[in-house]
Amino acid sequence: MTAAIKDGIERVVKKIEENTRLTEIGFYSVSAGLLIYACYRKRPFKRFVKAADIPDNFIAEKTLQRGIVSDVQNVSGNGTILLVNHRPPINFPLRSRKTLPVKISGVNIGNLGYGWLETIVKDKEINFIPFSNKGKNVEAQVFLIEQDQPRPIDVGKALTSIGFAKTAEPSSKADSYVKRYLRQLKYLESSAKFHHNGQWANLPEHFRWLRKKYESLWFNLLPDDKKVPALVRTIKKEDEKNKKKQKLK
């Protein structure tokens, strides 16, 4: 009886060990499969050098990318293109020097804008959200990374707001995110026109007359304390702060 019990216990233990091994194999297989799938989805090692390299799920999910602008070029038929040294999340320094052509979506950049990009953006780090991977260039929303700025600068919006670029319909599919981005660009373009910034400096005289009338009306509606020039208001605020500090002392 004792031998039978001992034999039964050994069989149970052996069965448990076999099941444990199978469980471990299954667990590691699932983990490896998930890791491979994650690498396929996120491409942490992949360096993009042409538009077709960017996966469709990156476009759909608006996956943020980063890189360094190595050059700015005016390409016939394509407008102004940023040549970007793309940097994946896990970047290896010893790689090909091929660059990814990136077109700022939603804008046509003029000569003033080209000079601005050459001066401000070239050789700088950028982030970009790809909107389209069709054609030769990646259409994207581009952000300039500046160390002294609290947040990245949207390059397309900056160019439009100072009148160095005009809005244009992108070739990318207009989903809700892209539509909202285009509305923001058009608002900034209207403001640049109103203030005669950049390319809009030579608008007809009647536009200037309307602007002066609008500013005059707006000024008359302001409270008296707001009619003081901005510099004077700033000086007054500083004086008030200094007086408060002296009282505390």
Q: Would you report the number of β strands?
A: 8
Poorly predicted runs are 34-42, 227-235
Structural class: alpha+beta
Radius of gyration: 30 Å
Separate helix tally: 7
Order of strands across the main sheet: 1-2-3-6-5
Estimate the strand proportion. 15-25%
CATH class of the largest domain: Mainly Beta
* Helix proportion range: 40-55%
The overall average pLDDT, rounded, is 76
Order of helix and strand elements from N to C terminus: HHEEEEHEEEHEHHH
CATH architecture of the largest domain: Beta Barrel
Report the principal-axis shape.
elongated
Q: Profile the largest sheet.
A: 5 strands, mixed, barrel
Number of domains: 3
Task: Look up the CATH topology of the largest domain.
Answer: OB fold (Dihydrolipoamide Acetyltransferase, E2P)
InterPro entries: C3orf33-like
GO cellular component, one term: extracellular space
Outline the structure in words.
With 249 residues, this protein is an alpha+beta fold. It has 3 domains: 1-42; 51-192, OB fold (Dihydrolipoamide Acetyltransferase, E2P), CATH 2.40.50.90; 205-244, no CATH class. Helices cover 48% and strands 19% of the residues. The protein contains 7 helices and 8 strands; from the N terminus they run ααββββαβββαβααα. A 5-stranded mixed β-barrel has the order 1-2-3-6-5. Helix 4 runs parallel beside helix 5 (176-194). It is elongated. Mean pLDDT is 76; it is low at 34-42 and 227-235. InterPro entries: C3orf33-like.
Helices, strands, pairings?
Blueprint: H1 2-42, H2 56-61, E1 65-75, E2 79-87, E3 100-104, E4 107-109, H3 111-121, E5 125-132, E6 138-144, E7 153-154, H4 155-161, E8 165-167, H5 176-194, H6 205-221, H7 230-248
Parallel strand pairs: 3-6
Antiparallel strand pairs: 1-2, 1-5, 2-3, 4-8, 5-6, 6-7
